[in-house]
């Protein structure tokens, strides 16, 4: 590549850089950028300060090649404005459990909470997810969770994959808001242990004939037989059945 460059010593954010002002072409885009060698968190980066236009958005960003958890990333540190929110995030291409992700590490504020999260476009069980990996604190508990928006049987779900402790039990669960037979459910897909039995279950709060149910859809094994069942606790005239 042919560069028109200068050897500059500017001061950026109070730091003195030995850098070059370059105008390279990356992926067909012309950048007005700086090649900097700053020290960030005691790590020396070979990085670019770019101001590209991506999807009509102007970014102040860094192209860094840091080492995170022993992995080398080709990444971008961007500070864009998305839906009126300012993000400090990384575009990483790590390998997680033999899967390659195109993902973002974001630190957004949602409902007043700060998240360290990943937006992944992964393939899980043959399904493509637009998802978030969040490490949130809910009710004083730290959750490693996924916010997924998969398409299952043509239905779009807003769901969480949580590993919370409920009533002293640890669940591998999914909070879904699907529409089944025209009914909107607030539900959990749980794998709890009840009376020593492992259930593939769903805790639903559907409305049937105007009645709100707190119920479980269980598939237990009793005497070697598999049952498809529903345990309902409806409220009728203010009484729980």
Task: Tell me what the structure shows.
This protein has 241 residues and is mostly beta strands. It has a domain at 1-93. It is 0% helix and 61% strand. It contains no helices and 45 strands. The chain has a 19-stranded antiparallel sheet that branches. It has a two-stranded antiparallel ribbon with strand order 2-3. A hairpin with a 2-residue loop joins strand 25 (117-124) and strand 26. The protein starts with 6 loop residues before the first strand and ends with a strand. The model is unreliable at 1-241 (pLDDT under 50).
What is the radius of gyration computed over CA atoms, rounded to a whole number of angstroms?
25 Å
Mean pLDDT: 39
The strand count comes to: 45
The major pleated sheet works out as: 19 strands, antiparallel
What class, by secondary structure content?
mainly beta
Helix content: under 10%
Tell me the span between the first and last alpha carbons: 75 Å
Give me the number of helical elements.
0
Shape: elongated
- Strand fraction equals over 45%
| Low-confidence regions | 1-241
Keywords:
241 residues; 19-stranded antiparallel sheet; mainly beta; two-stranded antiparallel ribbon; 61% strand
How would you concisely characterize the structure shown here?
This protein has 241 residues and is mostly beta strands. It is built from no helices and 45 strands.
